[in-house]
Amino acid sequence: MPKHYDPITIEIIQNSVQAAADEMFAALRRTAMSAIIYEVLDMGTGITDRNGEIAGSGAGIPAFVGVLDKTVKRILAKFDQPGDIEPGDVFITNDPYNGGVTHLNDMVLTMPVFADGQLIAWTANIAHWNDVGGMVPGSMSTEATEIFQEGMIYPGVKLISRGEPIRSVFDILTANCRMPDYLIGDLWAGIASVRVGERRILEIANKYGVDVFLHALDEYMDYGEQVILNALKKLPNGVYSLEEAQDDGQIWKVTVEITDNEFIVDLRDNPDQNPGPFNMSADDAIIACQIALKNVTVPDRIANGGTFRPLKVKLRHGSIFNPKYPAAMGIYYELSIRLHDLIIRCLAENMPDQLPAGGFASICGTLFGGIHPDTGRPYAVIEPELGGWGGSPRGDGMPGQFSAFHGETYNCPAEVAEARYGVTVDYLSFHDEDGGAGLHRGGKGVRIDYRIRSDNAWLTVAYTRDKVPPWPLKGGQPGSSNHVIIRRADGTQERHAVVSGLTLNKDDVIQIMTATGAGWGDPMERDLELVKEDLKNGYITLEQANKYYGLDKRSA
């Protein structure tokens, strides 16, 4: 006879696991040494069940949370002998070919949780580290041709054994980093986070019983699957395809098939792997599809291992979405967000009354650094940038936000940047570049000017949506582009979207320009009072009001 479990207790356990993941997130944020973690929140935390299925997650980047279950499953497969995994162990991974999923800068820590002599769960976190070695400072070069040039590889190794640090692994970590003090600070913050999660999970299991805890997680997975299946039934069944040109001239293709029980994404007919770092792992391609599935079904509901059971992803080994070892992957994030945007566009063009127009859809990863003019110590700025979202059937796009793909992250405040780095922030505002007009206009992109204060600094950027702007819907206007302008101290200027290790000197200015989102609907149908309000608030110029909205003619 099946054992009866109190449904209220089960729900309490499920919510307690979520609370534990949130506490892990707070612990990592409050103890990390690098601003990319504690300010920008370029990180994620999560708890999986004993099999590696995600059961609870903290805030941060959704794509990072999607890494954690895949890492745990790879650790379980690798350490499969008795005694390989013990209480107090902590494992470290950054290898995209072996559970690291993203690129070498993103370090994953995982810890098993044991109760009553059995493995009952895992705690895990991921965070971007400033430097892990490789051919350039910051470890991310647009010129890398193999992963070995991008830094030290940790393919799922034991970092702590039964609670005791393995000193040789710590020594290897610090010996292969240009900023070892930051690495050690961020590493121990990650260790503290997984240990906090372990402590909370043990409290839950001891309070309610291991058997009840395990059942609660199993039932939670089944519930996640049912929620997504119910949502799939509300989408129009069909097969939808799209071809889209990219900035480099390549054509990307996607086919999405939606049934009542499955969401199938076919990516096999795409370019061969890139000779440089513009590739993404198969696991990361799956994550981009997972996020797209959530976005078009139930973005405001749970996401766990059961949620993605209906998802099927078809990939071709040797393509940019599933490259052969040892392809470089340092700029994976631009492919990831491009792939997500490709899927959303494919569906939006067939469901324009349900989905928004295209946004700036680039991480706009900006890396620059040098020697701090006041302290003489190396510094490295590593940050994503804000941009504009596309207009939607419900209203205007959001201005100055991270991509929805990027989750709950924040820009680094000017005050922090100036205090921690050797730069001055001369300008931070929305810009006035053309783009995004519509019945519901796109959100504004931003302009940020960083003035370099010392010679021999460097800059690396890899922006997409430079040549191919954000896409409009139902008669709206395309958005603007993502790019960087270098204003030299001698008055000359350069424009870049992809560049690696560009030398900068004192009083050179990095002018970051992120895209305004595309418009939804005919601009001439926009309420004239809203146009006047936009003009008053500085969202559009008088020239744009007349050019796209006919303010002068419609007011006559």
Strand-pairing-aware structural class: alpha+beta
Helix count equals: 12
Strand proportion, as a percent range, falls in 15-25%
| Number of strand elements | 20
Estimate the global geometry from the Cα principal axes.
globular
Q: What is the C-alpha radius of gyration, as a whole number of Å?
A: 24 Å
Biggest beta-sheet profile: 7 strands, antiparallel
Structure description:
This protein has helices at residues 7-31, 35-38, 62-78, 167-175, 180-208, 210-232, 282-296, 332-348, 414-420, 528-537, 542-549, 551-555, and strands at 43-49, 54-60, 90-93, 106-115, 118-128, 155-161, 164-165, 238-245, 251-258, 263-266, 311-314, 365-371, 378-383, 423-430, 446-452, 457-462, 483-487, 493-496, 498-504, 509-513. 30% of the residues lie in helices and 23% in strands. The radius of gyration is 24 Å and the shape is globular. By secondary structure, the protein is an alpha+beta fold. The strands form 4 sheets. Strands 2-1-5-4-3-6-7 form a 7-stranded antiparallel β-sheet, sandwiched between helices. Strands 14-15-20-17-18 form a 5-stranded antiparallel β-sheet, covered by helices on one side. A 4-stranded mixed β-sheet has the order 8-9-10-11, covered by helices on one side. Among the domains are: 7-225, no CATH class; 357-525, no CATH class. It is built from 12 helices and 20 strands. It starts with 6 loop residues before the first helix and ends with a helix. α1 crosses α6 (210-232) and α7 (282-296) runs parallel beside α8.
